[in-house]
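Hello again, I could really use a second opinion on something today. I've been staring at a protein lately and its backbone has me curious. Can you walk me through what the tokens say about the fold? Take your time with it, there's no hurry, and the full record follows here:
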Amino acid sequence: MKARTELKRRVQQTIERYRMLLPGEKVVVAVSGGIDSTVLLHLLRGLSQSEGYLLHVAHLNHMLRGEESLRDADFVSDLARNFGLKATIRSIGAAESLQGRSGSLQEWARRARYAFLEEVAGEVGAFRVALGHTRDDQAETVLLNLLRGAGMPGLRGIPPTRAGRFVRPLIHVSRKEIEEYALLHRIPFVTDSSNLKGTYLRNRIRLRLLPLLHSEYNPQVTETLAAAASILAAEEELLESMTSSGIFAVLQERKEGRVVLSIPALLQEPVALQRRILIHAARMASRSSYLPLSHRHIFALQEMLLGRSGSKLMLPNQMVAVKDYDHLIFASGEKPICQPWEYRLALDKTLHIPEVGIWVKAQIRRRQEVDLKDSTPLRAFLGWDGIVAPLILRNRRRGDRFHPLGAGGERKLKNFFIDAKVSRNQRDEIPLLVCQGEILWVMGFRIHDRYRVREEAENILAVEVIPNGDEQGPD
């Protein structure tokens, strides 16, 4: 009996420690159907008997896994019904949502999921949304961000609460404890097959790296990483407070979509504070609520401080940074006229395209190593036969022609963009993968029909666009 109540007691302590939920409060519970979120729902339902929580189940079907996605939605619907709870279950397609947008498939799904949960909370009158992230998710996120080169904001991992809205009652619970609880209470759940694929970095960390670190280096690696994240989160809070105060010592101008910093004043600050002020200023100027800046962006901005006047750097979300003598200007929606650019893409190396703020990587892979279903608007697989190095990345040129995959024949690239409803001011920014003057891939859209992967292909050219250095964590 003690084993049955111990986990519930610890979860209640976490809720109270971070003031996640109040007695009698209505809360939306995000349930994917997986073991973590299903156990979370079971625990909150048990606690609701004493705390009076009013639960509402929410599930978003991303329609990425065919019949399996439908199975998950049906499972959650049945689960909520068996628990006597109301549920909101909706579907959203990736193809039309990703068309013409930057960002990975995982980042799209993450943003769509949070937007959906916000919407459901508003509809049912709930202030809190409970998510099923565990201590293992915390460890995975810290390692993922470390490998991406993140600073302290990334290494603090997943916060127990975010924006006062999202709460994570299982953040101090291990996945092993979750599995034992599910077994003890005979709690059914479904398994997402995409979590078992080694395609995504987060999966490889979960399936390979963490088990290796656990067996060969530190049996308590998950707890250690989670503890480090907690320490860094507290220090990050202090430094963020210093940044909010420090930026006003270097701020020269601020208006809608534009922030100007004094470079001499900024250079007087410690390097760590310089970097934080640069991030803060860029986000102040951004017209978007989300500006994904990686360490590469930050290092490039720091180099601009000592660079020549007139130098420019394109940032995500149509942001541009310009050095104007002793001032660094962040401007949103004030992009310079796009000039022709061209780069040689070497295999197995990551190439930075500063004009559009992306990185691109190309690899040759064996046919059996690739699942063609993993292609996305930002990841393409092409048959290697017939492709001759060097590979070139460039923007469009007058007279460019292209044979889109599945189309009847070659056509002007301009007409292709018109049919794809790409605005005029975006066409010069779309990278093209080119070989001997022939366009192999219009990135974000389609590959050339002749270079599709055929059944007999042994080697495949895998090319990926990385808008932000790597995948985003679940925070």
